[in-house]
Each structure stands twice: as structure tokens, then as C-alpha cells.
Amino acid sequence: MPVINLDDLPPTLPRKGALTGVDAGEKTLGVAFSDALWTVATPHSVIRKVKFTDDAAALFRLMDERGSTALVIGLPLNMDGTEGPRCQSCRALGRNLLRLRPDLIVTFQDERLSTAAVERTLIGEADLSRGKRSQVVDRAAAAWILDAALDRLRALGGD
Predict the structure, then answer these.
(1) Which of 65, 61, 86, 89 has the alpha carbon at shortest distance from 76?
(2) Are 20 and 146 in contact (CB under 8 A)?
């Protein structure tokens, strides 16, 4: 299945089933999941990148365990909305995952300022030290990305 625009996603999905959010960094993939009714996104884990096929297998295993029906990858747009090299890398991740699992549903969510928002939350509300923040920021950013996608799906009437 090709990459699908988030606005066109609802009709392609079974109405019940978790969605997976991914924050793709240079060294890690932060992973989060929604509940089956798409009401809340929860940080789950971090996959340390080693080799693409191993990373993909780990992600697919997590998705299968959760009964995930689609993958939402954060798209790090520039502040003016243009796409730079990091966006190209995230889009390539989606295409490469589709090569391994052609029936996968992939979409992208604007993730501008997600890491900054998560960092502020972890500092201000959770009062976490820099060392502890580094252990949770990637999966928390994935949840932030997925939560933004869930908000958009609800706005589209996907609830």
C-alpha cells in the first residue's frame, strides 16, 4: 500500500486497532502506541538503530504485539513548512518499511517542535534531570507525534 496522506487515512483503516507513532532519529526510533479506539497515545519504547532490517523487524514485532493497523512517522518540517534532508530520511524510512511489508499503512505527521515540547514538559512537569530525560525523550516525542495525528483524525471525523 502506498504512503497515505493523514487526511485520507480514516477510510483506509479498520475502525478498531492501535496506531503506532514513530519519532525517527539518527540513532534511535522512538515508539508509541494509541489505544484501539484512538483516544490516547502512550510512549512505549526506543529501538536503537543497528541495521535497517533488524530495526524494521523489531518495529514490526512491536506493532504485531499491539495489533497496530497503521504507522504514523514524524515528519521534521522546517519552521517555514519546507522539507529538508531529515524529512527525506523519514520519507525513505516509510518507503523502505513498505518494501518489507507492502500491506503496511504509512502516513506522516508534522513534528515541528515535538522534541522541544517534550523537553519542556519533562523539565517543567516531571522535573527530570538531563540524563533521565535522554532515556525517555524519543518515546515521549513519538507519543506527541501520534497524539497530534489522533487529534487530526478526530477533527476529520474519524472518531
Answers:
(1) 86
(2) yes
Q: Which tens digits make up the pLDDT trace of 2-55? A: 788 888 887 887 767 899 999 999 999 999 999 998 999 999 999 999 999 999
Judge whether 152 and 40 are in contact, CB under 8 Å: no
The pairs formed by 150-159 with CB atoms below 8 angstroms and a separation of 24 or more are 150/19, 150/34, 150/38, 150/39, 150/40, 150/41, 152/6, 152/7, 152/109, 153/6, 153/9, 153/10, 153/38, 154/38, 156/7, 156/10, 157/10, 158/9, 158/10, 158/38, 159/38
pTM of this prediction exceeds 0.90? no
